[in-house]
Design goal:
- InterPro entries: HAD-like_sf, HAD-SF_hydro_IIIA, HAD_sf, P-loop_NTPase, PNK3P, Polynucleotide_phosphatase.
- With 439 residues, the chain is of the alpha/beta class.
- Helix content is 32%, strand content 15%.
- The protein has two domains: 229 residues, 3-Layer(aba) Sandwich (Rossmann fold), CATH 3.40.50; 177 residues, Rossmann fold, CATH 3.40.50.300.
- α2 packs across α4 and α11 runs parallel beside α12.
- The two termini are 35 Å apart.
- The structure holds magnesium ion.
- The site of magnesium ion has 7 residues, from loops.
- The site of magnesium ion (MG) has 7 residues, from loops.
């Protein structure tokens, strides 16, 4: 490699700290400690090495920790004690990190450590916290170079792929120095690769546990590497890193129609003065149901029936019947995933209406999870009225599991099914920016 040859040459390119660190390595190793602080919002744990304090630089060499720099000491995935670790490669990781430091790169670690500080004791008196901090300290002593460590404790603001750690680093931990986005980079093992085989190795390599590292780098606009290629362990390691996703918030377009089929109107035009209808929504949480109601049906006088406010199905049916009897159209804005749930509304409504339609919200699970996270972030701290808590992913998965997509030709009582597509709409530019990132 050209770059390597240059950096090991005996030239002034070598950072002065490096030669000093080399000669006094053993002293520095023993003296190295890591000072830890927690952010005011308790979402972030920040570590700095001491006495070699991290220095600001425009060149940022940033890394995931577990699976990228360090592995457990054996074949198990999670370390059982602070000593239970080894570098991802016995010699190459350390050599490369020292080299980067010598080249003036600032070494920063961005690690997801949800719930680290409130985790219970594991065997032998160790906690997740003591294991993580112990491993970081061991690595810091082994390297004896300045390092800055960020660990995301929460699941919303800071957890990768969200940009919270990178934004915090830039705004308050790099002395306002603009990063050189071409020279800087991020290395992580959670790259969304499927199960794969290595040449000459019979046992397949497990698929990556997530694609959070890759998406984090894409969000931050940082060049991305997997540890295998970055440290020169396996140059085919990046071959299966995905480049396309079924859902990609960076390029999600509104090119799709609002609804289909378009052969019949959204609001019926064939109703007499006393005709009313019921629209049963069918859709995942965070698929855009209530926004759609407010924008397209509320202006036409449709009454909103919703189980979150009315508590149970009985009350929903009761409210629906009252509205119908007073001559008003109704929208049942619940998830209504199954034929049997919908049948209860259909049976009750049938004698009172001209028509029952189902509106099926087509947003994929990925899109709904995205909306769910963005909504919680966007409304955070905006007061009781506006704030929306994130819905558990389990609830979103459960909807998919139970879903029986309505079919107008088969489901008794439903005259027409309209497919409603999610169109991204934004309150302002900041909302748009937030929505257009991975979360
Ligand atoms: Mg990892």
């Amino acid at each position: 490699m050209k770059r390597k040859a240059e950096s090991t040459a005996d030239t002034p390119r070598i950072h002065p700290m490096f030669s000093a660190a080399k000669t006094q390595q053993s002293d520095k190793s023993v003296n190295t400690t890591v000072n830890w602080t927690v952010s005011a919002d308790k979402g972030l744990l920040i570590g700095t090495t001491h006495p070699l304090a991290p220095f600001a630089s425009s060149k940022i060499a940033s890394f995931d920790f577990d699976g990228t720099i360090s592995l457990s000491g054996g074949s198990h995935v999670f370390s059982k004690s602070p000593d239970d670790w080894r570098f991802v490669h016995p010699s190459k990781v350390k050599a490369r990190l020292l080299e980067l430091h010598a080249e003036g790169f600032r070494i920063v670690i961005f690690s997801n450590q949800k719930g680290l500080l409130d985790s219970k004791k594991k065997g032998q008196g160790h906690t997740m916290e003591s294991i993580f901090k112990g491993k970081i300290l061991a690595v810091a002593r082994e390297l004896a170079i300045p390092m800055l460590i960020f660990a995301a404790l929460d699941d919303l603001e800071y957890r990768k792929p969200s940009m919270g750690m990178w934004e915090t680093f830039l705004s308050s931990h790099n002395e306002s120095i603009e990063p050189d986005m071409k020279a800087s980079f991020y290395v992580g093992d959670a790259a969304g690769r499927p199960e794969r085989t290595e040449r000459g190795v019979s046992k397949p390599i497990k698929k990556d546990h997530s694609d959070g590292d890759l998406k984090f780098a894409l969000n931050c606009n940082l060049p991305f590497h997997v540890p295998e290629t970055f440290f020169g362990i396996d140059m085919n390691g990046a071959a299966l890193v995905p480049e396309k996703w079924d859902f990609d918030p960076r390029s999600y377009s509104n090119g799709v129609p609002l609804f289909s089929p378009a052969s019949t109107p959204l609001i019926p035009e064939d109703f007499g003065p006393n005709d009313v209808e019921v629209i049963l929504f069918v859709g995942s949480p965070a698929s855009g149901k209530t926004s759609f109601y407010k924008k397209h049906l509320m202006p036409h006088g449709y009454v909103h029936i919703n189980q979150d406010t009315l508590r149970d199905r009985k009350k929903c049916i009761q409210a629906m019947l009252e509205a119908l009897k007073s001559g008003k159209h109704c929208v049942v804005d619940n998830t209504n995933p199954t034929v049997s749930v919908r049948a209860e509304y259909i049976a009750a409504a049938k004698p009172h209406v001209k028509r029952i339609r189902a509106f099926y919200f087509t947003a994929s699970e990925e899109l709904c999870e995205h909306n769910n996270r963005v909504r919680a972030k966007w409304t955070k701290g905006k007061g009781k009225e506006l704030q929306r808590e994130r819905i558990s992913s389990v609830v979103l998965k459960m909807f998919r599991k139970n879903l029986e997509i309505p079919d107008g030709s088969k489901e008794v009582g439903i005259e027409e099914v309209k497919r409603i597509n999610f169109l991204a709409e934004f309150e302002d530019d900041e909302h748009k920016r937030l929505w257009s990132q991975w979360h």
